[in-house]
Amino acid sequence: MTTADAPARSAPSALPDGLVAIVKADCPTCRLVEPVLQDLAAGDETLTVVTQDDPSFPSGLDPIDDKTLAISFELDLDTVPTLLRLRDGAEVGRTVGWSRAEWEALSGRTGLGEGLPPQRPGCGSRTHDPEVAAQRETAATAATLRSRRVALGPSEDEVEAMYERGWSDGLPLVPPTPERVARMLTGTTRAPGEIVAVVPPDLVECTVEKVAVNAVMAGCRPEYLPVVLAAVEGACTDTFNVHGVLATTWFAGPVVIVGGPVTRAIGMNSGINALGQGNRANATIGRALQLVVRNVGGGRPGEIDRATLGQPGKYSFCFAESPAGPDWEPMHVTRGCSPEQSAITLFAGEAPRGMADQQSRTPESLATSLAMCLRAVAHPKIAIGFDAVLVVCPEHRRVFRDAGWSKSRVLEELMARLQLPGSDLVRGAGDVLEGLPAAAAAHTIPKFRPGGLQIAQAGGGAGFFSAIIGGWASGPTGSEPITVPIRG
Fold it and tell me: By Cβ atoms counted within 10 A, which residue in 23, 42, 296, 329 is the most buried?
């Protein structure tokens, strides 16, 4: 195809008038026409060769190295080889691929490529490679970012500089360069300037871009960003009350429980060691939420964060629920989402405590055993004030499933076993001064308020070990669990 009759257009200033050939070594047709280029270069007219990938190709022609593709993009190339004619700084002719007739017409030479086929199609220009397009898009986005740039001195170490500026949770951070932040933003269709939430305690508006900055520092991949955005949205609601979670002297921190197809799509762990280390998505999603609260909202330990002891989950506490059958739907489905919808549930929780029952093989025995352990949340003599999440392992879940107990049945049976005599809970009972006021002695008191006990499912296939995640002050006086759908 030739464009010799097309209107003249400006050529890159780096290119002189005459013939210009753009090639790449990784193109059979470009290698095929190498002797043609040698022949043109030996003629009276100037031939400039531009190579997209290998500055030594074609040999002996001193090609211009265009690995950055700056010239190729300016020429709006689709195919290599492309032969151009430039005159007075403007392009006046173009042909792509190899066609003896078109190359002869454009060059004014005859007898080109004797012994070669009369024509061959070219290859795609590197400007259309997917990774090149992604890098170009990232560079364009990086140029539009509005976050404050922090210039480091030549002798400053990036990681140490972030520690010194107070951005870190105590662990090393990934430097949030504009290119990394722009790459992170490819994980969402939301505009960088969109306000995600107003983050306590300083009540600062937080944009998608600011979340992306902290997700980079946390070590997230771009595909994790929609999950982080949903977590930030949920945490900053009055329902979840992250300000209160920060300010309490209790152990609580945000627990991010993820359910739906996204857990498999981004490689989250819901199996062996689901509540532990080793999975990048689990570790960095929860950490990114905590960094947003710290760096955007100003929630730092020793300042607003007043926890007496704290707990390791305040670095990051995030896990995926394992998929199960219709009788054991994940938490986000129990809380109103469809199975096809991905969502996060936020819970203000302490560190998990283990529950071992390796003997119960009937649902009645196992439910009673679990209820006994749940009584200890916060304190065995404290009722209603603290919520909990029970994470049921596959071995325990199988006991219930084999007996035909659905998840809702298990919850009902647990709540029935957690109706406690007030006389056992009042202050002084059992020679323990902690407890409820004396008026409670005449009543039966539920350990948890209605809706205060949630059931999740995760864990490896071996081991009769479930976990209890105790909560913080429940309801309007503290924090309510909240479920937020994940959107791209």
Answer: 23
Pairing relationship of beta strands 98-99 and 64-65 according to DSSP bridges: unpaired
Beta strand pairing call for 82-87 and 18-23 = antiparallel
Does residue 6 surpass a pLDDT of 50? no
pLDDT digits 0-9 by tens, 143-199: 888 898 999 888 999 999 999 999 999 999 999 999 999 999 999 999 999 999 999
**What is the tally of helices (H) and strands (E) in the chain?**
17, 21
φ, ψ of residue 315 in degrees (nearest 5): -70, -50
**Residue 7 clears pLDDT 60, i.e. is over it:** no
* pLDDT for 1 beyond 50: no
Which of these ranges, 2-6, 127-131, 363-367, has the smallest mean pLDDT?
2-6
Q: Tell me how crowded residue 287 is: count the other CB atoms within 10 A of its CB.
A: 25
Q: Is 221 left (phi over 0), alpha (psi -120 to 50) or beta?
A: beta
- Residue 463, Ramachandran bin (φ over 0: left; ψ between -120 and 50: alpha; else beta): left
Q: Given its phi and psi angles, is residue 298 left (phi above 0), alpha (psi -120 to 50 degrees) or beta?
A: left
**Domain locations along the chain:** 9-128, 161-485
| Residue position matching structure tokens 């490896």 | 460
Q: Of 408, 405, 463, 400, whose CA–CA distance to 271 is shortest? A: 463
- Short-list 318, 316, 295, CA closest to 207: 295
- Residue 71's nearest CA partner among 49, 54, 94 is 49
Question: To the nearest whole percent, how much of the chain has pLDDT over 90?
Answer: 89
Given pLDDT bands bounded at 50, 70 and 90, which one contains residue 11? low
Burial tier of 176 (Cβ tally within 10 Å: 0-12, 13-18, 19+): buried
Q: Considering Cα of 288, then 292, then 294, then 299, what sign does the dihedral take?
A: negative
Distance of CA 443 to CAs 326, 414, 440, 453, Å?
A: 37, 19, 5, 21
Burial (0-12, 13-18, 19+ Cβ within 10 Å), 356: exposed
Q: What values do phi and psi take at 338, rounded to 5? A: -80, 155
Q: What's the predicted TM-score (pTM) here?
A: 0.80
Tokens 């035909």 belong to residue: 404
The mean pLDDT value for 111-135 works out to: 91
Ranges of H-type helices in 296-329: none
Query: Mean pLDDT across the stretch 76-102?
Result: 96
Instruction: Specify the DSSP class assigned to residue 308.
Output: S
Q: Half-sphere exposure (CA, 13 Å, Cβ side) for 252?
A: 32
